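Notes, Module 5: Reading structure tokens.

Key idea: the token line is not a picture. It is a compressed description, and you learn to read it the same way you learned to read a sequence, by spotting repeated patterns. We will look at two proteins. The first is printed below with its tokens.
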Amino acid sequence: MDIALIPARSGSKRIKGKNIKPFLGMPIMAYPIKAALAAGCFDKVVVSTNSKEFGEVALSCGAEVIFRPEELSDDHTPLAPVIEHGIKELQGQGHHVERACCILSTAPFVRPSDISKAKEMLVERNVGAVFSVTSFPFPIFRGLKMSEDGTVSMFWPEHELTRSNDLPDGYHDAGQFYWLDAAKFLSEKKVYMADALGFVLPRYLVQDIDTPEDWHRAELMYRVLQESGEVEL
């Protein structure tokens, strides 16, 4: 079976109750749940949480729930052990998990069509992982660092005179979803496998939400994307 696994722990410090905080009138966790359900490519959509309250919200949005221990729910827990726990919990219930897609709980811009297209990439290319990426808006090889006294210098001074259009594009994790071949993932226990492919998203669909300012910016972005039809929920 193919599963969507949405990690949603309680205990966020910068935005209290972040995973169930209303985002334009709906708990933010509801957006990835609804996107996963609408994608039509999952046998189960499951929220992994340490919170009874979060679990109840997940159920009301149409997801199933598994509870994970507190040692996998602190600020320093990486994503891979949470995914591993979710897969093994379902395996322990007698399910054969062939593929898992971890969708982040605070990803309101995730689109059902992108989820399903990324699955096609995973299957057709027979790789261990496909995850969302987006490009940096400026060439990373022209990046600057700043010392304690405020002076700046280039990370790669050899590119000071290189034209921007002669430099390769740089990409970063877009923080939306991670499709995984379950067997390969359980063997390697990491998301960034050697054969991982990037599913490229436009920058206007990507926004980390870590602070109240990020949250406000994301809501403004979402309203515009709704009006233009770029988001699907």
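Here is the second protein, with the sequence above and the tokens below, as before.
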Amino acid sequence: MSGYFLPIGLVVAFLIAWFLPEPGSALQQMGIIPWMVVTIFLVNGYQTVLSQMPLSGKLWTTAIVAILINLLISPFLGLAAASLLALPSAAAIGLIITATVPSTLSSGIVLTQLAGGDGIKALFLTILLNLVGIFTIPFILPAVLDNVGTLDLSPWPLLKQLLLIVLLPFVIGMLVRRMLQFSPRHWLIRYLPSSCVITTVWISISASSETLREISLLLIVNITIAALLLHGALIALCLASRRLYHPDRAEWLALLFTASQKTLPVAIGILAALNQPIGVALVACILFHFMQLLVDSLLAARLVRSAAEPDTA
């Protein structure tokens, strides 16, 4: 059931926001969204035990490859996909922001384990990408969005925002774990981050409901195709990297399902910081999230079936 909680919750959030946007719009005016992101990373820090991190072998090479693919190359792939599909500026902004943010906080780890990969290494890569992303996003995102030509985005306020809503809560969460005996595997801890993502989407869609009603089916199709192109390109880079430095299968699967994925709450947090209507951009973020879950779930199932085959890579 836990694997379906987030996608089902996102659909329910969309329906409620579509038909009854007033409560969510009121919460958006109160500035709730950044606190949802803070809660997610507070819980993520609470669940993290640095002593469990396997800091040896080729993992540092894998980490460098993950940073290159997920944080440095991906934003330009997002720009290329948006340009290829000739997306309007609002949709392009959403796709590019999605391409710039780091890996998902949970689904990449879960899919790594389902495919027979190393979950601990996936956790390490996820934490690393999210922490390094704090310092890459503020400088890469304005440079890439400059090609869209609609935003004048300064890196320093964005860096401050990410430090406050990502790094600080993460560190506090790790410190709190030293003082509390509450199990990090408790159902409340496990479901709280996903609940915050669902709440964030509900609030964001509610606040942009009028804009969303004007989106055409053709635009939704084009955004979906652009999202699939972006995610497919990231997967292709992960596949190519295996040929270059030959990690073991379990570690490579950790790379595949972390470096190719993107986190929704950080993308929404950045959109909220832009202080402008985010309806169409939010649709691009959510569609990418759904597409990556669909594609990677099918990919994980395929990899499980092929696990017994000889590794000829």
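Summary for the second protein:
- The chain has one domain: 15-305.
- The chain has a mean pLDDT of 87.
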